[in-house]
Amino acid sequence: MNDVKDRLEMMERGPVMQSILRLALPTMLGMVVQMVYNMTDTYFIGQMGDPALVAGISLVMPLFYIIQGVGNVFAVGSASLISRQLGAKKKESARETCATACYTTVILGGVMTLLLLLFRGPLLDLIGVSPVTRQPASDYFGIISIFVIPMVLTVTLGGQLRSEGATSQATAGTALGLIVNIILDPILIIYLRMGTAGAALATVCGSVCSVAFFLYVFLRGRSVLSLSPRYFRPGKAVYAETLKIGGPAALSQIVMSGTSILSNNIAASFGDEVVAGVGVYLRVGTLCLMLLMGLTTGYQPFAGYNYGAGSYARLKKGFRTTALLATAVACVFDLLFLLRGDHMIRFFIDHEPTVRVGSMMLRALCIAMPFVGLQLTLTVTFQALGKSVSAMLITLGRQLIFYVPLLLVLPDRFGLTGFAFAQPAADILVTFLAVILSVSLFRHLRGMEAAGRLAGMGDRTHTNHLEEEIVQ
Length: 472
Fold this sequence. Notes:
By secondary structure, this protein is an all-alpha fold. It has helices spanning 2-13, 16-46, 51-87, 91-118, 120-126, 134-146, 148-163, 167-191, 195-219, 236-268, 272-308, 312-348, 352-384, 388-401, 403-414, 416-454, 464-469.
């Protein structure tokens, strides 16, 4: 258990920049792995030269958002709680939170499988399939629906490991799934000519292998946490604290699913080539977004642990460091997308109408990217500290409060150009909202830091409010 002790010691006393990078780099690598994971299906499907197949996969993406949303209830919610419990030296409570979250995820995954299979036809109509894209979308949808449990469990277990700073193990499990997916994709999609069904089968096989690896880490005692059934203690306290943070994160994913359906329906009104172009653009655009999410997700256990430990000055320094790093990464990708965006789209499918649409969407995204790093850092800070209302306003603001109205107005007024600029405009607006919300948070942290100094306990003060926030 020395590696566990070292991880906790690092979050508590290690140099801030070094600690954040040590936590974030494996998570960023994991996000790159996840990104390649998502791109692999699109790449091999695109090699078949049929935009309808690419469009079919793109139309089913809202299903992934729903699956990730269920996983994120516990990957984000319980991880925030676990980090604070570990910072407050409540390891037994952290184990109970971990086990309860994972077993509940399995139950919810089973319920989702039944619902998706029962309502497959109406759901396909809802996501906007056309006569041309219906069959490839249906093939992909059907297989993914059967394997919801391992897919949501992959998200949850990875979140549990990151909550204690075990980002390397979380990354290794995700990488294993990618390797399996990459090996199976060309065999199933191209050699066996299974098309979108082969892509779905390769994806779920990768998820199963990732879950197997995560279980190995837990069962071999390489974690301070536990999945033992004796720690499965469902109760109001754990669920309330988990849902307080994980609920908004999940709701954001569900809202993203709904806005994706709306977006796909609007894109379909411009033609199937536009749907395919948007689908490829989303894969390329997530290059930067996933790295930023990896960086800020790696910072999350650092923030939660130090907040739980009462180390407020250290927490604020960690925030500044992460925000600067995230902004720098975003600016680098801005240049990459502006200079080589069309080549990146063409890598997936050499179909000129599709490339034109994808390139235009990518150029529009560049306007918002410098804002996104700060936006994500603030969002994760609110989540890590248990500030659910602020986290919910930011995550819902990006999709529901700003994006939906813009999506309904701009395409009608400016056509495809308006469609392309709706999401970047929403990202800029929600970043300003996040900054406004952060003012009271940092005023609160300054007050807690000052109270600690007055009490003669320096930056290690544990105040009464903390006892109320940490679930026993």
